[in-house]
Amino acid sequence: MNTPIRYVIIALVLIITLHSILTITHDEYSRVTSLSNLISQSNNGSSSSATIDIHTEPPISISSPDVAKEELSHKTSKAMANATFVILAHNDDLDGTIQSMREMEDRFNRKHGYPWVLLNEVPFTPEFIKRISIITTAPIEFGIIPYDHWYQPNWVDEAKAKAKASRDKMKADGIIYRGGYRNMCRFNSGVLQFFYRHKLLQKYWYYWRVKPNVHFHCEIDFDPFLFMEREKKTYGFTITMYEFEATIKTLWSAVKEFVTQHPQYVAPNNALGFLTEDGGDTYNLCHFWSNFEIADMDFWHAEAYATFFNYLDLRGGFYYERWGDAPVHSIAVALFTPRDQLHFFNDIGYEHPPYTHCPRGDNIWSKGRCACDLKKSFDYDGYSCMTKWDRLMNN
Ligand SMILES: *[C@@H]1O[C@H](CO)[C@@H](O)[C@H](O)[C@H]1NC(C)=O
Ligand SMILES: CC(=O)N[C@H]1CO[C@H](CO)[C@@H](O)[C@@H]1O
Questions:
Q1: Domain ranges of the chain
Q2: Ligand 1 centroid distance, CA of 204 (Å)
Q3: Tens digits of residue pLDDT in 176-198
Q4: Model pLDDT, residue 165
Q5: Architecture of the structural domain at 149-183+206-393
Q6: In this model, does residue 12 exceed pLDDT 70?
Q7: Residue 317 confidence (pLDDT)
Q8: Strand ranges for 62-145 from DSSP E
Q9: Is the confidence at residue 373, as pLDDT, over 90?
Q10: How far apart are CA 245 and CA 210, in angstroms?
Q11: In whole angstroms, what is the distance from residue 313 CA to residue 334 CA?
């Protein structure tokens, strides 16, 4: 073999070796990079300790190993449900909205990045949008509830002035509950009845309703949305209570008529026992407090609820008596789904002043680093319907 050929062979061997090394290094690099991408995506840049230097160092050197591990296990299992938070707010609810969102982010969503949808009867002000937009890196959308979704239909008989008369009377009766006067009518009832039809919410399967000025008192170390999906739940709540009879005088008779006409919608093993003490003759006024709701949006869109809602709507009780979304939602889920699709989220510490649900069980309470006082939990307060729920579920 002459010298030039030897050099060519040596050069070739060198090039191949170098190429292999480069390939290995490159593979290693891209693996690390994509892993880093996964981390920063699942985290969505909300925790700086986990994302700093992400592209120059492998995950192992991340300064907060717990966070990294948690996020990795997240990504390897199913990371997110098809779900969103929804808040109905007015422009003057800015501070309360920030507070509620901030607590939800701190206790749960900074680890998940679920989107937020904020809805209003009028456009949000630029100031509102600006202040809300900076408090989280989760996606946020702002929307208006279209006028024809909530405006009192013109067939409502204002000539009889029924609606107004009974509304005024109700004001006079003074709808009081022990925490003081509650302005029940801040939102047009139609907004509450129709929000789930909003186009910004159509693309999600589950929603979690959050109100301005509420508190989330404990760490939420599991994903309630994924729980709903895995366990095939329809509706989740934390607080139950009695409705004011004055607001729903004829609701139960309308429900009974509906059920007689449409028995096919009533589910086997339903939760009627939560709603009545006499086998369905009268309504005991118990309902899930709907300012907190984690629910399957499809339930409201499906035939049973759509038919039920239209039936109630034509009765005019939303306008004449001010039927609330809480009893209407509660009655519907109690009757049209099996009771085991309803879920009491004991682990979620929630306060809507003046009432608090503080997770029962010392273990859950301390593990959740809860900020609420167990002694002040509303669960077995005289005004709560928790005993009716227990009775139903223990049967
Ligand atoms: C999420 O759920 C909604 C409503 O069921 C559905 O229309 C949409 O396609 C789903 N999105 C994904 C990404 O699965
Ligand atoms: C995975 C994820 O939620 N990504 C989102 C992170 O936040 C940006 C906006 O801040 C969104 O565009 C991404 O979809």
A1: 3-76, 149-183+206-393
A2: 5
A3: 433 333 333 346 566 777 888 89
A4: 56
A5: Alpha-Beta Complex (3.90)
A6: yes
A7: 85
A8: 83-88, 116-120, 140-144
A9: yes
A10: 25
A11: 19
Ligand 1 centroid to Cα of residue 43, in Å, is 22
The pair phi, psi for residue 378, each rounded to 5°, is -80, -15
103, 105, 293, 321: the active-site residue: 293
pLDDT of amino acid 153: 66
In the annotation, is 293 catalytic? yes
Query: Mean pLDDT over residues 253-271, rounded?
Result: 97
Which residues of the chain form beta strands (DSSP E)? 83-88, 116-120, 140-144, 176-177, 180-181, 206-210, 215-216, 235-237, 240-242, 286-288, 293-296, 342-344, 350-352, 355-357
Burial of 245 (0-12, 13-18, 19+ CB in 10 A): exposed
- Give the whole-angstrom CA distance, residue 238 versus residue 288: 8
Tell me which ligand sits closest to the C-alpha of residue 71: 2
368 C-alpha to ligand 2 centroid (Å): 27
Mean pLDDT of 349-358: 97
Is any ligand 2 atom within 6 A of the Cβ of residue 37? no
